[in-house]
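Notebook, bench 3.
Goal today: get a predicted structure for VOC family protein from Streptomyces heilongjiangensis so we can plan the truncation constructs. The sequence was checked against the plasmid map this morning, with no discrepancies at the termini. Length recorded as 137 residues. Pasting the sequence as submitted so the record is complete.
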Amino acid sequence: MASRLNPYLHFGGDARQALEFYREVFGGELLLNTYGAFGQGQGPQADMIMHGMLETPSGFTLMGADSPTDTESAPLFTYSVSVTGDDEAELRGYWEKLSAGGEVTVPLDKQMWGDVFGMCTDRFGVPWMINISEPQG
């Protein structure tokens, strides 16, 4: 298998809800492992996600977990997750689902470089960039 780069997102207690939401957005198979299933954590921490992985039909892999030590504060995101391609219907569908209930910082629209581009932060606080390019002949 070739090497791949996979985003790994960290959450403050809502990883299950976020990863299930991303399965609704992108489709695919979701694997969730809790701390309790591996004998770690007591009480509410036992149900927190130790490792989650979503494999989508489009070939995306998105991973995530809850932070077991600091569930009181939201994680600090210093990145954005970018999804690019030329399948306009597919990418607009992702945009609609990701931006619903979140905050749009750059509306999905034609940009000066010719592509359709938008930026939003989803309801879990994860920043996303969607770029739709013209199909290559």
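Helices lie at 15-26, 88-99. The radius of gyration is 16 Å.
Flagging this for group meeting.
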